[in-house]
Specification:
27% helix, two-stranded antiparallel sheet, 8-stranded mixed β-sheet, alpha+beta, 191 residues
Length: 191
C-alpha cells in the first residue's frame, strides 16, 4: 500500500496505479467497474492524491489482506488539500507480488487530528479443523447482521472495529460505533 501510495504522488500516477491492479480488480468510481479498464481510461493529472494505511490486516495464509486509512486530494494550484476521505483496499498475492483486488474510497470532512500510528494485524490460522464457513453461511450471517442492525452490531463487532461512512469521519471502537448506529432508526443507511 505504501509503495503504491508513494508512486501515485509521482507525475505518472495513472500508470503506477494501473500496474498495482490485479487483472480482475474492482474499483468503485463511484459505481463498481473493472479497475484496469477504469484506470486505462483515466487521464494523467497534475493533482496529488496522498494516502497512507492506518490499519493493515493480513490473512494467516499470507495470500490476502486489506488496508484502510486516510487520503487527501490537492489540485495543482492549491496550497493545501481540499478534499479528504478514507479508503479500503483489498490486496491479493499474485506470483509473489501484492496486487490490488478491490478499492473504494469515501469522502469525509478534514480530519481534526493527525493520523494514528499504523496498526498491523496478522490473523491467526483457524484452529477448529474446518475449512471455513460455506458461502451460504457467510451470506446468512450477513443477512442476519443487516436485518438486526443496530442491535446485532455489538454482538458481531470486534472491540477495535472501524465504521466508515461517506461524509463522516471514521468511528473507531465498538462502543463508539454502536452508539452511532443506535441513533439510526430501523435499517442503518448504507450506500
Amino acid at each position: 500500500e505504501e509503495d503504491c501510495a508513494q508512486k501515485a504522488c509521482a507525475p505518472d500516477m495513472v500508470t503506477d496505479v494501473h500496474h498495482a491492479l490485479s487483472d480482475d480488480a474492482i474499483v468503485l468510481l463511484p459505481a463498481p467497474q473493472n479497475g484496469k479498464q477504469a484506470w486505462s481510461a483515466a487521464k494523467e493529472s497534475t493533482a496529488e492524491l496522498a494516502w497512507h494505511p492506518a490499519l493493515v490486516v493480513v490473512a494467516a495464509s499470507g495470500e490476502l489482506g486489506y488496508t484502510t486509512g486516510p487520503w487527501a486530494y490537492k489540485k495543482k494550484d492549491e496550497i493545501a488539500p481540499g478534499l479528504f476521505g478514507q479508503f479500503v483496499s483489498v490486496w491479493r498475492q499474485e506470483k509473489g507480488k501484492w496486487k490490488l483486488l478491490f478499492d473504494l474510497g469515501a469522502e469525509n470532512p478534514k480530519p481534526a487530528e493527525s493520523a494514528a500510528p499504523l496498526q498491523t494485524v496478522n490473523l491467526p490460522a483457524p484452529n477448529d479443523g474446518k475449512s471455513g464457513a460455506t458461502l451460504a453461511e457467510v451470506f446468512a450471517r450477513d443477512r442476519s447482521y443487516r436485518e438486526g442492525l443496530p442491535g446485532s452490531f455489538s454482538a458481531m463487532a470486534v472491540d477495535d472495529v472501524r465504521l466508515l461512512r461517506a461524509a463522516d469521519t471514521p468511528v473507531l471502537g465498538e462502543k463508539a460505533a454502536s452508539e452511532l448506529l443506535a441513533k439510526w432508526k430501523g435499517t442503518a443507511p448504507f450506500g
